Amino acid sequence: MTSVLQAQALGKKYGKRWALRDCTVDIPAGHVVGLVGPNGAGKTTLLKLASGQLEPTAGDINVLGGRPGSTPAQLARVGFVAQDTPVYAGLTVAEHLRLGARLNPRWDAALARERIGQLDLDPSHRAGKLSGGERAQLALTLGLAKRPELLILDEPVASLDPLARRDFLQGLTEATAGHKLNVVLSSHLVSDLERVCDYLIVLVDSRVRMAGKVDQLLATHHRLTGPRHALDRLQHVISASHTDRQSAVVVRSDAPIHDPAWTVSRLSLEDLVLAYMDKHAAENRRVALEVQR
Amino acid sequence: MIWLTWRQFRGSAALMAAVLVVLTAVLALTGPDLASRYAAGIAGCTPDDTCDRFFDGFFGEHQLLFVAVSFVVLALPALVGLFWGAPLITRELEAGTHLLVWNQSVTRGRWLAVKLGLVGLAAMAAACLCGLAVTWWSDPLDKSAVLDLALMAPLVFGARGIVPMGYAAFAFVLGVTVGMLVRRTLPAMALTLAAFVAVQLAMPLLVRPHLMPPVTSTFELSHVNGGGFHVQGEGGGPVLISMQPGVPGHAGAWVLASDLLDPSGRTIAGMGEEAPIPVSATSGPCAPQGGPPNLDACWVEINRLGYRQQATYQPLERFWPLQWIETGIYALLTLGLTWFSFWWIRRRLS
Q: Which residue numbers delimit the ABC transporter domain (chain A) (predicted)?
């Protein structure tokens, strides 16, 4: 399996604060990858490093086999749609397409025109007058028509209403289905990623908590409910919560679970992600307790 | 990239072009008339040696326009730095559009090179046109200006010739660099203005006098370099004279020091100060004899006593050499800041 993005002990420091620290990730090619994690996990910093917007303070990052943002050729291979999808307020939609055509050697003018037509955007409209959803679509069009090998989107739908959000993600799905395009998309909402992603990475506090294909993840994780004393017999417990009568746990297991003490049920992707974020929280609690003693 | 730069810049460019058209139109309409009136005036005053009076009248008549156009040339570089330089990058950073444009297939070094090149050249061309047009137009006035507004005077020097071009290039790159460091438009504009004004003050006060070693020499006193005769007290007191920023035989020189030396060679008064001279105010050549005092005879008497002017100055002939040197200095400053901005945009800015 080849990688679109490899980071080794990657770090980025702003002043004295580390925005990303000791991050090691390997994102495989051929997927629409969802990057999910709580606010402040370092998602934006990682994606900006990958697009060449930032220079790493420590460690290495390698995108499509090259150093991010180093050469025009490398820039041409990676598309980036930034958070809040910035566009030039004073330029019209048509001028944005012209900008893309002028600045990108592999620009696909037909694709851009077609998308703008489908979206029903008036080419003579100033971008500053577009709605948030339209602006995001324009930014996505620029990113797609550039014909990159890897398209990075940093929380593109965070500020959109549900309808615009659905349209945007639908547009993204259609575009990736048509072309051999690797996509890395970050969000803190699993429900957004669930619609488009087939690979998921959970990033918590600069560390990869979990990574894998969505269908595999769902197949190998189970929610179990049962008596607490049966907990000892389980391996790979991701998270556990207890009441007086019984325990609810999330476990990872490749094989089906036949222990009669447990009732097995399916996990939603959201619950799975929460379980992994929760594990981190649990570890933190344990550390805090040890320090107190 | 050139298209995008032009698309973002065309509004400011049109405004600047309009200003330049108005300015050059005013200058072109009034310039020939000014020159012919000056020629006629000189022809009329030369035979009876009343040209000083003609100069005063001619200059006084046009002083307002003279000051106004000089001010335009002085202000233009500052405005370029404020409104073209400072927002060049801060505007992108504030709108987040740097994330858009720096992710097209153009490195940010090239992006900056085109921006700096195109807008910087426009700024230099505008300032150069402005400076040379005003230099052409004000030639008759510069020849008849009062000492404080002569061609070599600090404020006028900066509004003539080719230095405005150097100022504009420097102000523009200064604005861009400050914008990169400060990252907000308004603070960047304020800081750019403060830094540019500081440099523009330091240049004539601290640097320009030493660009070429100034000439120091002693001269006999006359109405050119001395003046302000008056008598202290009622009748019997000593006669006081004060020193003027003029050098006999070097009209239009930039006078850095004009000291009064007594017969032993000691400095007894600096420029604008007054000192007593032991001549009689009641009898002899310096006494008012019925009508207005005959000052020429008085100067002869003072010179006979051994009083002299010691002047340190930059003669008018050095106008163009100083213009070139100063433009070169600003070009070096501009190159230094340009280098820094390229380094910063690659390494630090994101």
A: 5-230
Taking only the tens place, the pLDDT of each residue in B39-55 is 998 888 888 878 888 88
**What tokens does A134 get?**
């339209």
pLDDT at A259 (0 to 100): 81
State whether B100 and A90 contact (CB < 8 Å).
no
Averaged pLDDT score across all residues of chain A: 87
Domain C-terminal end among A146, A179, A205: A205
B99 interface with A at CB cutoff 8 Å: yes
Helix (H, G, I), strand (E, B) or coil at B254: strand
Does the beta-carbon distance from A146 to B102 stay under 8 Å?
no
Sequence-distant (≥ 6) Cβ neighbours of residue B42 within 8 angstroms: B51, B54
Contacts of residue A35, Cβ cutoff 8 Å, sequence gap at least 6:
A43, A46, A47, A184, A185, A186, A187, A201, A203
| Domain boundary, last residue among A154, A172, A205 | A205
Share of chain A above pLDDT 90, in %: 41
Which among B7, B103, B110 has the least Cβ separation from residue A91? B7
At residue B290, the pLDDT reads 52
What string of DSSP letters covers A156-219? TTTTS-HHHHHHHHHHHHHHHHHTT-EEEEEES-HHHHHHH-SEEEEEETTEEEEEEEHHHHHH
The answer as to whether A210 is a domain residue is no
Q: Can you give the CATH number for the domain in which A74 is found?
A: 3.40.50.300
Instruction: Say what the pLDDT of residue A279 is.
Output: 62
Best mutation target among B100, B101, B110 (most A Cβ atoms within 10 Å) is B100
Determine, for residues A54 and B106 on separate chains, whether the beta-carbon distance falls below 8 Å: no
Give me the number of domains chain A comprises.
Answer: 2
| Averaged pLDDT, A174-183 | 84
Report how many Cβ contacts below 8 Å link chain A to chain B. 74
Q: Which domain holds residue A279?
A: 219-292
Does A42 lie in the same domain as A89? yes
Query: How far is Cα B147 from Cα B160, in angstroms, rounded to an integer?
Result: 16
What's CA B242's distance to the chain center, in Å? 26
- β-pairing, A207-213 with A199-204? antiparallel
CB contact under 8 A, A105 and B107: no
Residues A12-29: tens digit of each pLDDT: 988 888 889 889 989 999
Instruction: Please give the ipTM for the structure prediction.
Output: 0.86
For chain B, residues with pLDDT lower than 70 are 232-237, 288-294, 348-350
- The answer to whether A100 touches A112, Cβ cutoff 8 Å, is yes
